[in-house]
Amino acid sequence: MTAEVETAQARTQKLEGLGTKRKRVEDVRFTQGKGNYVDDIKLPGMLFGDFVRSPFGHARIKSINKDAALALPGVKAVLTADDLKPLNLHWMPTLAGDVQAVLADEKVLFQGQEVAFVVAEDRYTAADAADLVEVEYEALPALVDPTRSMAADAPVLREDLKDKNSGAHGPRKHHNHIFTWEVGDAEGTAQALNEAAVVATERIVYQRVHPCPLETCGCVASMDKVNGHLTVWGTFQAPHAVRTVASLISGIPEHKIRIISPDIGGGFGNKVGVYPGYICSIVGSIVLGVPVKWIEDRIENLQATAFARDYHMTGEIAATAEGRITALRCHVLADHGAFDACADPTKYPAGFFSICTGSYDIPVAHVTVDGVYTNKAPGGVAYRCSFRVTEASYLIERMIDVLARKLDMDPAEVRRRNLIRKEQFPYQSALGWEYDSGDYLTALDKALSTVGYAALRDEQRRNREAFSRGETRKLMGIGVSFFTEIVGAGPIKNCDILGLGMFDSCEIRVHPTGSAIARLGTISQGQGHATTFAQILASEIGIPAANITVEEGDTDTAPYGLGTYGSRSTPVAGAATAMAGRKIRAKAQMIAAYLLEVHDDDLEWDVDRFRVKGAPEREKTMTEIAFAAYNKVPPGMEPGLEAVSYYDPPNMTYPFGAYICVVDVDVDSGVTEIRRFYALDDCGTRINPMIIEGQVHGGLTEALAIAMGQEMAYDELGNLQNASLLDFFLPTAVETPNWETDFTTTPSPHHPIGAKGVGESSNVGGVSAFSNAVNDAFAHLGLTHTQMPHDHWRVWKTAQRLGITVS
Amino acid sequence: MAKMQITLKVNNREVEALAEPRMLLIHLLREELGLTGPHIGCDTSHCGACTVDMNGKSIKSCTVFAAQTNGAEIITVEGLAGPDGSLHVLQEMFREHHGLQCGYCTPGMITRAYRLLQENPNPSETEIRFGISGNLCRCTGYQNIVKAIRAAADTMNGAREAAE
Question: Structure pTM?
Fold first, then answer.
């Protein structure tokens, strides 16, 4: 080789492929204010929609008078359920097999429910008109506490279902019951609990919270009456699924519907569902013949579009005297609000909650979940996690700590004794999952040694002694959590939504000059897909990432896919990208062989080119091959260099990690200070370490919000008392600590590049670490568990109950 | 509703506009002037996505009436790049240090940082965190935003010293 020939290393660097801290291509637009979010869209003649919403948690609608609103200049239409009835659009199917009122039909079932839709020339007039719609209500008793939902005298919430003894997920045992879901060995678990040396029991509530992306939900619907085409731009985490649902609901043929997700200002699960605003905007545009925009404000976002969690759990964990876990039992009362609009795969009404045996080798387990209706907003989405995985992880990680107290053992030691061993993978869990890969002990040991765990415990011992001597008013808490996620839904044999298998897709076209475009069925909401998917491809096909455009979110151009949520983009669409890339390379190899006049098998791949084995000076670069694909392909081969892959994953992926949080609690004010937070993540193969680190920071900050302050607080009438950012806690830069990140790498054995997904890990593991730390601060005083959020008031109340406050 | 005539300077350009007395500045910027960099995130002045610079101060444009800006000088994120299109150091550093993800808070955040570094050209980490506490970000956890602002301060101070 001559000196001018670049080394393989130099050529690899040029590709900016897997493992590179590539700067994001998206940022060039975003930093200049040139993003294109849905509210930035402005079409000729566009009108604005706004909702009249229920002030009551539960009430009968006696009358609606639109006259004053319609008389206001600039108002074009006021729609109510009665207007939608002839179109059969006053109810819509939810993703969970239930139905939801698009506009309230005779009754309202939660505060903020959509009652009428006003369309006007501008957003100010629309808001004025919404105020002028007169709705007469008769208040009904509100049911807010899910533990009261199935009481004999509980009010009937869903009159449309009151005579139905079964729903989408089996029998209903009460008029406010939605489903019972059961998994595991009831008898075996009961026996293990009965025979156990130690049993710890705790009631653990994961409060109702909200994903609250900075951009609220919204859309622009535009019906072209001339050609019968409907285009909808919107905040859709799953544009193709929205197209199919829109077609099924409206009767418009699917090929005449185009759904476009433009830039999305954060999603976190809030933008998976189909909301009344989308349907009403579409109807408005069909009726009025011009585009209609609907953008919810923050109060509407918190009041009406999808919440998360609200899981009321009872855990029982059995162990030997030496701390070896022998069984886990859990019952969940799941508050789904007024309509069951969870976004879970069809067969899993409680999502993947059965991952609740966590990272531990637990021989037998049993889980039951009862879903119930209340007078609260519908939702139950996976807020920065795979379906119900944070709930599951929180349950097991709290139960391990509760068990440790009972055993009088160190919580890290209980984890160590029970972690699944490396040689047990692929591991079959008691509740039916096959964990793909893991090296848990290595991760835990690395975490413990990095933070100096033993020294921290010594310091805590000294702190407690000093506290008891009255020398300090602060207590130190150390929270350990070890989580295993289940993401990348998922294999079609198990996972579908509304019958749509949860595969994902990538289509690649290599242009003659050796650059390319890749289109995917997913949609970024900040994850940086345009950057990272190009990196996957760069490594697969030897074209620099900078020369690959990634495009998502337009159903007219992108191949069908189920979208971005539940950390499924990298595990599923990322795999499709690699597989499509391999098809490109396979064809490129045949072209190269033809050009070099050798057999395919005589070539070997070298970063960005094929070389003849044994004669490396004979080579064809991808750039040369790309051009040849358009003018010099072997006889009988079709020209062009394109490929598409629809990837049905053989299994989910199981990212894991070990987190440690150190907190100092001022017992007289309840103020908690996060002194240190260490997060070790193992997400398999790392595509872009810079983006991974950013994802971990963000997930931890959302975990901080949930654990330390977020709660959707309803009063007994069903009023949401904190529906604005004044009192719904989102941490600022001041409350947010610096995060320490670390990693191990255990590739997924079944994923083409070994990647597992990382966007949600830190939220799953983070919440438990914070909560365990706060609980740990009081553990020596006999506290086993106190409910989240650990805001100053609640922490102070805990200290007061334990008799250690000054007053 | 009768409209008011207002004259203001936006990104160094004289602008005349007609605005209802109740029209918010954010709507004037976004809908009348086509400056969609500043965003709306909360309606209650908490999130800071709508932050712009008005007469040398950071303001939340969802809490100022357009009519109040008569005679004012406004700078939005669109006005930060140089006349030749070269990016402002802050814009470069936010990209360099991965200080943004979904990009929705970014225009407000950068515009706030632009003013912060003029108020305090050499801020400590604590001062940066306090200085941007009126701007919420749901994606980044702030750590890389702080890093980006600190790096921008270093670059700008270095350039200033070199010039002196």
Answer: 0.97
